[in-house]
Amino acid sequence: MAIIKVKRHTPVVDMTAMCDVCFLLLNFFIMTSQFKTPEALPVDIPASTVQIKVPDNGIATLSVATDKVFFSIPGQDVRVRLLERMSEQYGVGFTEAEKKNFSLTEGFGVPMKVLKSFLRLTVNEQQKSKLQIGIPTDSVGDKPSELSQWILQARYAEKEIRNNELKFSIKGDSKMKYPDAKRVINILQEQKINKFSLITNLRADHI
């Protein structure tokens, strides 16, 4: 008796629907993602076991490395008001284009005397600029340091725009020297700011 072989058919899977779904998901993630702006002052922060996340709003960051301090504050409207207040303090006028450029600047570290030149640069040029030598932390005679003024005027700007008390965090490089951090802490304490956070990485053995 002859053996009848059953003809096998290779299954066909229609991937059209799957491709459509993947394409839609890819579009969604591209359009909703927020790309991280490169840091003005990259610092290698130390590790700790603390797992409290730093808030996105209402907190200014002082990035401290060896002999350099950079400052950043969230909120474009707050940044514009901050620049206007610093303009009044130092008698330096800024154009609307420069104010807009400053509102888009995540962090900066330039003396007031070169701030106008800095704000004429594009974002990419600012990241590579040699003007970013850090905000001066030393007082001149009876005048407070520029960093002290940035901190003070930022507090006023936050209060005027959002009616909030501005908080501060220090993001220090793991290799920075103690006097560099102490200088920044002293400036905060001169303004009765005794509560601030220290930004660290989470240790791998506690993840």
Could you characterize what this model shows?
- The protein is of the alpha/beta class.
- It has seven helices and six strands, in the order H-E-E-E-H-H-H-H-H-E-H-E-E.
- It has helices spanning 16-32, 76-90, 96-103, 115-119, 123-128, 146-162, 178-190; strands at residues 47-48, 59-65, 68-72, 167-172, 197-198, 201-202.
- The strands form two sheets. Strands 3-2-4-5 form a four-stranded mixed beta sheet, covered by helices on one side.
- Helix 2 crosses helix 3 (96-103) and helix 2 crosses helix 6.
- The longest helix has 17 residues, at 16-32.
Which descriptors would you attach to this protein?
39% helix; four-stranded mixed sheet; 7 helices; alpha/beta; 6 strands
Map the helices and strands.
Layout: H1 16-32, E1 47-48, E2 59-65, E3 68-72, H2 76-90, H3 96-103, H4 115-119, H5 123-128, H6 146-162, E4 167-172, H7 178-190, E5 197-198, E6 201-202
Helix pairs in contact: 2-3, 2-6
Brief overview:
This protein is α/β, with parallel strands linked by helices. 39% of the residues lie in helices and 12% in strands.
Topology as H/E string? HEEEHHHHHEHEE
Average of per-residue pLDDT values: 81
Task: Quickly count the helices.
Answer: 7
Estimated share of beta-strand residues: 5-15%
Rg estimate, integer Å: 25 Å
With strands numbered from the N-terminus, the spatial order across the biggest sheet is 3-2-4-5
Structural class: alpha/beta
- Please give the largest β-sheet: 4 strands, mixed
Q: Overall 3D geometry?
A: elongated
Helix content: 25-40%
Strand element count:
6
Q: State the separation between the terminal residues, measured CA to CA.
A: 69 Å
- Stretches where pLDDT falls below 50 for ≥5 residues? none
